[in-house]
Request: fold
Amino acid sequence: MVNEKSFLLGNTGSAIRELFEYGKKRKAIVGEDNVFDYSIGNPSIPSPSIVNETLIKLLKEKEATSLHGYTSAVGDLNVRRAIVEYINKTYSVNEKPELVYMTCGAAASLTITMNAILNKGDEIIALAPFFPEYRVFCEKAGGVLKVVPCRKEDFQIDFDLLAKSITKNTKGIIINSPNNPTGVVFKEDTIKKLASLLEAKEKEFNTDIYIISDEPYRELVYDKETIVPYVTKYYANTIVCYSFSKSISLPGERIGYILVGANCKDAITVYKAIAGAGRSLGFVCAPALFQYMIPSILGHTSDLSIYKKNRDLLYKTLTDYGYQIAFPDGAFYLWVKALEDDANKFAEHAKKFELLLVPSDSFGMGGYVRIAYCQDPLMIERSLPAFKKLILDYKK
Ligand code: PLP
Reply:
């Protein structure tokens, strides 16, 4: 017999992937331009040119055995130094390269972190709606995922509910801002309030509670006044799980890092547990070529103006049509209230108009659909009449 949990995970397709595959089949039947696929959060803007220029330079100039060889397991020291120098300068913090661990993207950062901090039965709080893989990573690491819904009016933290949900077993809380799937950003006052609640709970229970800050969308914000606070500045026991997948459009190359906040209690112990978890999960080291690329691309992003245009057009048009949407400050998703209670039925109904929208249940909350607007702007324009027909169909 194989491991039952692993079998079940491999056997259950993700709702998002299934919809994507359905879209491919529909395109073959009704034509590429007539299907409006909003399923997958795959960046649609190419990487900034500095990415390929740096890679070509490295391939031409760096000695091959070193370029393609193992780096140290925690990541190349010069790369970690460059990352920390950039972070310290950008966010006025005082982080340390010895507390940075290079990973294969945010998914690896998260699963390593969970395995590093969790003992059997420890609880991790996820604020719903949340990235569905949190449950997989937490439960496989022996933890219990406790779901705390956000406020429905703005998808910000419901602090009363959160305060009641924290117990002596709470080992951490995952925050993801800008958020997948809502696009909502937690601003400075929210992070400050969260920090003081967690500090009070640490005192009350005499425990350590970590903020796991899942940050693949950190740079994806569209208005000057939207500032994404650097969490280590506000709360000591912070572990940042970062990824370059979305900011420079490299999700297939698998590169990111974990940063243990310099003020984290027993930071070195936490870091060693991270290194041990990475080792036991078989990561060995993050891709060497992409590690060496990082010092040259820090501070660069893909051209985000296209996502901004997509967001503005979709948000305005759909709210004008009568859809209810939380205002998305960042990431590349819209979280839209379904027009009937059952989001699965609503998403099925939307297919009648060739609109592929992801039902919300796998994000830990019923009654919504997610729209990934990292799409060709022309497809978005073509899809607008379909959204109108869909809402009119419900008004009949
Ligand atoms: N966390 C969130 C919230 C995400 O949306 C994603 C990917 O979509 C990940 C983590 C995983 O990102 P990566 O591709 O860097 O593993």
In short: The chain is about 45% helix and 15% strand.
